[in-house]
Amino acid sequence: MWWHSVGLKAFYDQWRGTVGLAVAVAAYAGLIMGIFPSISGIADLREIFDRLPEAMRVLFAPGGVDITTPEGFVATEFFSIIGPLLFFAYTIALGSSATAGEEERGTIDVLMSTPISRGRVVLEKFVSLAVGTVLIGAALLAGLAAGALAGGVDLRLDGIAAIIASAVLLGLLFGALALFVGALTGRRTLSIGVAFGIAIASYLVYSLSDLVDLIKPLRPLSAFTYYIGDSPLLNGLQPLSVAVLAVTTVILLGLALLAFERRDLRV
Amino acid sequence: MALSGLDLDVTRGEVFGYLGPNGAGKTTTIRILLDLIRPSAGAAFLFGLDSRRDGLRIRRRVGYLPGELSIYGNLTGREFLRYLASLRGGVDWAYVDRLAERFAAELRPRIGTLSHGNRQKLGLLQAFMHRPELLVLDEPTVGLDPLMQQEFYALIAEVRQAGQTVFLSSHVIPEVERTCDRVAILRGGQLLTVERITSLKARAIRHIEIRFGSDVPADAFASLPGIREVHVDGPLVRAAVIGSIDALVKAAARFEVVEITSQEPSLEELFLTYYEAAPPGGDPDVVA
To answer: Are B189 and B240 part of one and the same domain?
Structure first.
């Protein structure tokens, strides 16, 4: 009964994309786990990796993980770039179209002529986005577990679950950012640009801060610092990092509510 | 469009026309009423409630048809109505089905595949389906074929009978003449006047062309009441008449009439009559 609320309709509109992405992510993750035994069979992998320039090592294996362990391998192959990128691409796409998409398509005026508050539209759309993100996280966990099982790899699932949860939080943060820019301006492409730009900048600041001293002071500003900086894969979720990601998301959501409530709609 | 000094009172149970050319500020006014945009100064009250503070309570009691309707192309008509009905807390589906039948609305195909006119019908259905106390309709007949326009006028008459109030914006004089009790005339963001439809009819300038069976005398239609201008050209008479065309028709009846055609009265000419009425010295010959 998708038509019962704004949030359910938002989910109905996004479910094909969500399922598609979840399946693709799970398959890709399963594949990575499936090929791990043959990769780790290369005796000199560690040595080859250590011989890489430091710049490449920190880019691909953040947090100094050991890529010859299955956890380290997934962290390098997936959770350094591709994983977070998939999460925030999904949340930014949904967040930017949440209100700004309806404004650009011109469907907002009939919607807002019903007795639904603007704040409720923002909140329900965000909840729908969050549910989709969690589903993708769950699919990813299932894919990795299935791949490990098929390849006979002994994978520590608690660490994997922790880093996936961290990636979900990172995704929600950038989704909330996109939602906020869209709610503030009513412009979808601007919202995508700003959120994506900040996400990429955040990645670069985090991964280059190990190499470039000039960037090091910026490190606390990068969302990636809180996503992967204290290696949730090895250490589990750290309350402080979780809190920073979650509180920032809530603040952005609050700003989105305020901005959307006060503005003339672009009808 | 900036609005200034706009002061309007619409009475419960009346059909109120909001007449003005495109760009006069009609849509801006309506968007303020629905709290889609906010006035930089001033306030709007519906049912005695503030449009900003009590927006939700107002919108519960209003049905709205936007001037430029865009609806979710991926939904079918019925899905679209079902969604809006849910957000409104439910509607009487028997009534919706009756309306759909009346307007021959297509509820099965995806909205993206519908013609402009068929989408407009869905827009009308969603505005009327919960039997709101107030209907705010922005250029409702644009895109409807003539038959459906007639059906729409009949529906307006019915909801008026049922005690619902209608606020209808239009840039077409006959539509307002036909449906409304009173009319506000807007131009350049300013209210020109509010008056009863009967006085609007008395003011509107009609261009009548009469073709006769043979030449008529050049002075046959001079000095008739209400005639603003008349050209006699052999068997063809072109006249601009203000208000009733009764005198002209009766004068024409003395000759053999082949054809009478009447043009839709133009808004611009109507405006001129208001400006003339105010300070003296306007050019009485309004026809170019």
So the answer is: no
Select from B31, B68, B88 the Cβ nearest to the Cβ of A114: B88
B283 inside domain: no
Tell me whether residue B8 is in a domain: no
Retrieve residue A44's tokens: 């000199």
Same-domain check for residues B216 and B97: no
Q: Summarize pLDDT for B60-100 with one digit per residue, the tens.
A: 999 999 999 999 999 999 999 999 999 999 999 999 999 99
Count Cβ–Cβ pairs < 8 Å, chain A vs chain B.
Answer: 65
Cα–Cα distance measured from residue A103 to residue B288, given in angstroms and rounded to the nearest whole number: 44
Residues B238 and B184 in one domain: no
Chain B residues within 8 A of A267 when measuring between CB atoms: 31, 36-37, 66
Count of structural domains within chain B: 2
Query: Which chain A residues touch B119 with a CB distance below 8 Å?
Result: none
Residue to mutate among A1, A4, A113, with most B CBs inside 10 A, is A113
What pLDDT is recorded for position B281?
Answer: 39
pLDDT in tens, A106-163: 999 999 999 999 999 999 999 999 999 999 999 999 999 999 998 888 888 999 999 9
Domain CATH code at residue B124: 3.40.50.300
pLDDT category at B203 given cuts 50, 70, 90 is confident
**CA-based nearest residue in chain B for residue A263:** B37
Chain B nearest CA to A12, separation (Å): 11
* Rounded Cα–Cα distance for residues A262 and A123 (Å): 15
Residue range A189-213, pLDDT digits in tens? 999 999 999 999 999 999 888 888 8
- Is there a single domain that holds both residue B194 and residue B223? no
In which domain, by residue range, is B155 found? Answer: 15-200
